[in-house]
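Thought: the user wants the 3D structure for the chain below. I'll pass the sequence to the structure tool as-is, report back what it returns, then summarize two notable features.
Action: structure_tool
Action Input:
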Amino acid sequence: MAHKIIANTDAGFFSNFRTTLSTMKWLDADGHTFNVDWSTSLYNDPEKGDNAWEYYFEQPHPKSPGEYSILKYMRRTPAAKKAYYEMIAKYVHLNENTKETLLSTMDKVAGDYLGVHIRQTDKNTASKEVEPIEGRPIPLDKYVQEIELYLKKYPKQNIWLATDCKKSLDYMIEKFSDRVFYQKDSLRSETFEPVHAGHKSYSGYKKGLDVLIDCLMLSNSKYLIKGSSSVAVCAMLFKPKLTCSDLNFRYNNDQREQWVVKPV
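Observation:
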């Protein structure tokens, strides 16, 4: 079979990541070898090289000339969750720098912890065609209620908070103080401007590393409290047995991510 190359899309990190995994599944089933070429993504950084995939991951196969593949998209089904995980296990390998960053981050949170992901910024202002009403962010007090219920059961656990919003971070620190752990050097927006598509002066490489480490930290949590977001979805693809509270489903009846919620 011919060698293929998987290009990036112009979406955020984990929407792009899922497209890459979907295309890997299709090519793998047909017996192709392939490389990943994220050379025009939102995360490209001239100081880090011309292929953003290689900033964070190893190539799935040795590099070889080839044609660019058609990009494929898996449907949102429990079978797709299994297929995504299979592709991650087979072909998604962190490079040494990413491994070191993840391990040093995990060392800062002693013991088991609760993962919390709060996606804000442009989800508040996007058109209904881009983000339906049921996918809009859930009020922060609902997150607080859910966190408090969990910590009553597991009072010794801390919290890993992943959020693109400085106000959300400040609010959770106010409520839970030094039990909140987070990436202290990450960019967070103070407006509705998204981190991934805005803030052009911030390193594209660092944007990608920040969100990747947050996702991997969430995937290593004992339990996840989430809203609707590709970051939280991919945390559950990295660790299919992870269980969660999906607050957009509970309060807004957003059913789009129920395919990934059931453990496999």
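Final Answer: Structure generated. The longest strand covers residues 113-118. The beta strands are 3-7, 33-37, 67-68, 113-118, 158-163, 180-181, 223-226, 244-246.
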